[in-house]
Specification:
The chain is an alpha+beta fold. Helix content is 29%, strand content 25%. The chain is built from three helices and four strands. The protein has a two-stranded antiparallel ribbon. Strand 3 and strand 4 form a beta hairpin. The protein starts with 5 loop residues before the first strand and ends in a 6-residue tail after the last strand.
Length: 95
Amino acid sequence: MDLYLLRRLPPLEANVGKRLVKSSKLYLRDSGLVHALLGIQSLEDLLAHPVVGGSYEGFVVENLVRVLPDGGEAFFYRTRAGAIWLARKRRKIRS
């Protein structure tokens, strides 16, 4: 049974030799559940907690993935300056 609690965002494989990150990023899909499990009850609690950045990033990724067109895929690409989120439409394979 799959509860869909995690989202795996694979790295973009455009240039495999120069990728800095080769593993996928994992996001907990429900930031409210994360906050409840950590005992975060207010905005002040959240802002003082070290999970605030990851929680917000996961929230943004979830909302961006929801608006992808049918057949769209989400990836991330890591540079020395940081990671950026990318989406692209899946290519149809001709037979």
